[in-house]
Structures are given as C-alpha cells and as structure tokens.
Amino acid sequence: MSDITTEPEVHGISDEDLEVIKKLYRAVAGEADLLDEVVTADWVDLPAPPDHPPGPDSFKPVIEAFKSIFADVEVVLHEVIGAPGRAAVRAEIRGTHVGEWMGVAPTGKRTSFAIHEFHHLKDGRITHSWHLEDLHGWIQRASE
C-alpha cells in the first residue's frame, strides 16, 4: 500500500493549492489516477523521459513501473513553500528496493532519496512541474 505523509512545514501557500500538492504526491506514491484531478490535460513534467508527451496519461505508467521497483512507496513531504500560483516542495521518496533500477539490482532494503520540485498552478490544477531527484546519492548508497 502506498502512503504519503501530509504534515509538512508550510509557508505562503493557500489551503486549496496545498491540497492539490498533497494529492499530487498521493498520486506519485501509487494512486496514479489522482493525476486526472490535479494536473491539467497538457501538464508538462520537466525533465520528461524521452518521447514523454504532456498530460497525466503519459506519467501514469511511470508511477506503475515505480511501484514495481520500490514496494511500499511512501512520499514524505518535509516542506512546501508557495506564492500565488507557485509551490516549491522539499520531500523524500521511500520504499523497499525490489526491482532493478538504473542498473542497480534489487537490494531488498528500505531506501530513500530526496526530491525537490517546483510547480505552477492555475485554477486549482498543476500546469508545470520541474523536479530534481538525488539519484546519484541513491545509486551510491544502494551500491554499497
């Protein structure tokens, strides 16, 4: 079962936009269909995988694949900072590494990596997301 910790430190973001952000990370933690409620039909996820068109439907298979690599996926929101139409998120993805990922064979160990993301919101939906994950750190730790 996927989960999300929803008690981050919050600054400068409306309650409505915060709920959209929380729901986005529930989607990332495994409830992929929630994307339809929180992102626009032409949502842009940057950087996107090659041949990854805009919109929620192209990202849903990424979430499903991720669940097969990391069992019991959990997103821990540490901090959300916002302004009208903007949100910055400092978070962490946790899970048990059960599938090969980025050339690293399954370790069967509980693991995590930091994520930092910036979102643009309009009319209660996310239009653009920019993300940066500490994948180098994760590979280094998983390979030890």
Explain what the structure shows.
The chain is of the alpha/beta class. It has a single domain, classed as Roll (Nuclear Transport Factor 2, Chain: A), CATH 3.10.450. The chain has 4 helices and 7 strands. Strands 1, 2, 3, 4, 5, 6 and 7 form a 7-stranded mixed β-sheet that branches. Strand 4 (70-83) and strand 5 (86-97) form a beta hairpin. The chain starts with a strand and ends with a helix. The mean pLDDT is 93.
List the helices and strands and how they pair.
Layout: E1 3-5, E2 9-11, H1 15-28, H2 35-38, E3 39-46, H3 60-69, E4 70-83, E5 86-97, E6 110-122, E7 125-133, H4 135-142
**Poorly predicted sequence stretches spanning 5 or more consecutive residues:** none
What is the overall pLDDT average? 93
Instruction: Give the helices and strands as they follow along the chain.
Output: EEHHEHEEEEH
- Counting helices, strands and paired strands, the structural category is alpha/beta
Q: Per CATH, what is the topology?
A: Nuclear Transport Factor 2, Chain: A
Beta percentage is: 35-45%
- Over the alpha carbons, how many angstroms does the gyration radius reach? 15 Å
What is the CATH domain class?
Alpha Beta
- Helices, by number, come to 4
| Beta strand count | 7
Number of domains: 1
CATH architecture: Roll
Shape: globular
Distance between the termini: 27 Å
- Main sheet specs: 7 strands, mixed
Q: Helix amount, in percent? A: 25-40%
